[in-house]
Amino acid sequence: MAVIIGGLIVIWLGLTMAAAMLRWLGIELHYLARIIAPLLLAAMETAMFLLAIPGTERLPLAWHWPMTGGLIAAAWLVNGAVSGLYWFQQRPPKNEAVSE
């Protein structure tokens, strides 16, 4: 259970700390970068989980890969939801045909 909670904390802290650091530095991401950044973060978290969890002694051997897969799925789900939500809120309006 501690591995699951720790992994979810890593996912959430990655998102919030990256956003806070960008705001602190005064960096404003453009539209496409705001969509891609959470997905790149998910890719980095995937690599971290693949390297860290299978070698841990905190879990029984049979739980290493299922736990790794679950945390990778959670990373993509959370970061993908953030990216998708931003896209949904900020998507360009459709060009509506003006009828006369």
Mind explaining what this structure looks like?
By secondary structure, the chain is mostly helical. 73% of the residues lie in helices and 0% in strands. It contains three helices and no strands. It has helices spanning 2-25, 31-52, 64-90. Helix 1 packs antiparallel against helix 2 (31-52) and helix 2 (31-52) packs antiparallel against helix 3.
Low-confidence stretches: none
End-to-end Cα distance, whole Å, is 63 Å
Task: Estimate percent helicity.
Answer: over 70%
Major sheet: size, sense and barrel closure?
none
Rg, rounded, reads 18 Å
- The number of distinct β-strands equals 0
Order of helices and strands: HHH
Number of helical runs? 3
Shape: elongated
What is the secondary structure topology, with strand pairs?
Elements lengths: L1 H24 L5 H22 L11 H27 L10
Helix pairs in contact: 1-2, 1-3, 2-3
Keywords: Membrane, Transmembrane, Transmembrane helix
Brief overview, please?
By secondary structure, the chain is mostly helical.
Summary keywords:
100 residues, mainly alpha, membrane, transmembrane helix, transmembrane
